[in-house]
Amino acid sequence: MTYAQDVVRCEFCPKLASGLHPATRLVGDPDDEEGWERGLAAMCNGCWKILMDAGSMGRMRKGTKERWWLGHDVGPR
Ligand SMILES: [Zn+2]
After folding, report:
1. What pTM did the predictor assign?
2. In this structure, is residue 14 part of a structural domain?
3. 34 alpha carbon to ligand 1 midpoint, in Å?
4. pLDDT digit string (tens) for 35-47?
5. Which residues pair with 23 in a beta bridge?
6. Is residue 24 in some structural domain?
7. Is residue 6 in some structural domain?
8. Which strands make up the sheet holding 36-43, listed edge to edge?
9. What are the tens digits of pLDDT across the range 11-68?
10. Which residues are placed with Cβ below 5 angstroms of ligand 1, an ion?
């Protein structure tokens, strides 16, 4: 029996992810610190570049209303 355990899908498009990258997502109120979560997101190289250039709007994760940014330096301080 074999498992495709190394296959991770990009969280933003149907491609395979190139790896996990530090990211921040907005899951609630942007003015509320609790609305922000930091963690690792699986993404492909193409989406990594898109998120890098996403600016203040971030990028919507597929199938959700979450917005994501690359890195840990967004959100309220
Ligand atoms: Zn992608």
Report:
1. 0.74
2. no
3. 27
4. 999 999 999 999 9
5. 39, 70
6. yes
7. no
8. 36-43, 19-26, 67-70, 59-60
9. 999 999 999 999 999 988 989 999 999 999 999 999 999 998 877 788 888 888 889 9
10. 10, 12-13, 15, 44, 47
